[in-house]
């Protein structure tokens, strides 16, 4: 492996990099979140059930900036999984990275990204792809991301149901029960909360789940109940549906630099707010497995394509920083990170598995190779106390970062 060039981003803090020109809103948010939480740790959630996934997110959520998922290995993946994971991510403030590794022609990957049983673009801020099919894989995923963003911005549906008085020539007996009218031919989306307005003045709205895509058509009907046909009091019920467009910015607000003295924003994690509803792509430029072929000109081509799509490509999966040109501010996320056990006698032992995986320490990856986020899987997943182990990795990776930018342990970021 070539020694990485020591780019200016090596000595800049995460917070400084968040404000650099050409930095996307999602990248800026993630860098600020890393700075505030003081964590450059991503945990790889290689688990196979929803219960395991949500428990892991609870266990390590306070120590991470990102959780890496493999939705296609979770046997019972569904809406419950998505809602539970998104709720924990919002509460504990971390992003979700679906490690999908797209590698097909453009139209296929767009459909894989936005549709199918997983609909990744709906719930995962970040995903990744190989460039083996060529540059169109980036533009197609970008198109899919744009469709997901537009669906989210237009994702509020207002529905009102009202009952008009029957015609004067219809006899209505006082005290008759009101017939409950249900639009039985209407297909309701799975992620909705709804109730109806009636003659007693009760009213409500039908809202899409904020994390669901508005890719369905809600077709209300107009119904009337004839007294002769039903034997009940007649009424004319109309349903009107309005789709309103979100007008708020999808960028995070407020920024952590604002309102520093405000009691309302005394908690730094409250100041950073929710993640912007944007999507980002990581290019697989290098891998951590022995004998991988993502080397040389392939890695260089990844970097060149990333520069052409700075608004969508936020960085790389790589073993070293690929920031080499002026203006580069890409994030490097690095798998294959593991620490010896706390009670290990030999802390310099070479770590790996029997399937070609090669491990490096957080210090080597962050301090020596200039990478930004370490990805840890089995080192935390197999620990008896995952919360404790996640904290141990967080401290090691954060100390390496502070040493790299020259402020040492205990300094400000």
UniProtKB/TrEMBL annotation:
Pfam families: OMPdecase. Residues 182-191 have a biased composition (Low complexity). Coiled coil: none annotated. One of its GO terms (biological process) is 'de novo' UMP biosynthetic process. Residues 160-206 are annotated as: Disordered. Belongs to the OMP decarboxylase family. This is Orotidine 5'-phosphate decarboxylase. It comes from Pseudovirgaria hyperparasitica.
């Amino acid at each position: 492996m070539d020694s990485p060039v020591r780019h200016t981003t090596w000595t800049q803090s995460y917070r400084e990099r968040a404000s650099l020109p050409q930095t996307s809103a999602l990248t800026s948010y993630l860098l600020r979140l890393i700075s505030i939480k003081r964590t450059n740790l991503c945990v790889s959630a290689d688990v196979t059930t929803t219960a395991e996934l949500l428990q892991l997110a609870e266990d390590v959520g306070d120590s991470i900036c990102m959780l890496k998922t493999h939705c296609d290995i979770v046997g019972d993946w569904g809406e419950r999984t998505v809602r539970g994971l998104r709720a924990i991510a919002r509460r504990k403030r971390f992003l979700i990275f679906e490690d999908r590794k797209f590698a097909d022609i453009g139209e296929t990957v767009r459909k894989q990204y936005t549709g199918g049983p997983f609909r990744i673009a709906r719930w995962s801020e970040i995903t990744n792809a190989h460039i083996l099919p060529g540059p169109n894989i980036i533009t197609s995923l970008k198109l899919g991301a744009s469709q997901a963003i537009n669906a989210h911005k237009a994702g509020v549906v207002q529905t009102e149901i009202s009952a008009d008085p029957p015609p004067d020539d219809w006899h209505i007996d006082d005290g008759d029960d009101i017939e409950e009218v249900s639009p039985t031919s209407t297909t309701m989306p799975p992620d909705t909360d709804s109730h109806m307005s009636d003659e007693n003045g009760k009213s409500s709205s039908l809202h899409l789940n904020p994390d669901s895509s508005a890719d369905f058509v809600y077709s209300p009907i107009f119904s009337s109940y004839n007294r002769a046909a039903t034997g009940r009091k007649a009424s004319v019920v109309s349903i009107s549906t309005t789709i309103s467009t979100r007008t708020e910015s999808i960028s995070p607000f407020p920024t952590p630099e604002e309102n520093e003295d405000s009691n309302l924003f005394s908690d730094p994690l409250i100041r950073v707010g929710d993640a912007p509803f944007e999507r980002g792509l990581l290019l697989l430029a290098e891998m951590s497995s022995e004998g991988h072929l993502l080397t040389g000109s392939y890695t260089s081509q990844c970097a060149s394509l990333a520069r052409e799509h700075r608004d969508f490509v936020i960085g790389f999966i790589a073993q070293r920083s690929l920031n080499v040109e002026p203006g580069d501010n890409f994030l490097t996320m690095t798998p294959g990170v593991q620490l010896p056990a706390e009670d290990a006698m030999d802390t310099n032992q070479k770590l790996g598995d029997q399937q070609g995986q090669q491990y490096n320490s957080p210090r080597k990856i962050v301090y020596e190779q200039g990478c930004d986020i370490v990805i840890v899987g089995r080192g935390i997943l197999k620990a008896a106390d995952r919360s404790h182990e996640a904290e141990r990795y967080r401290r090691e990776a954060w100390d390496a970062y502070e040493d790299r930018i020259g402020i040492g342990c205990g300094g400000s970021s």
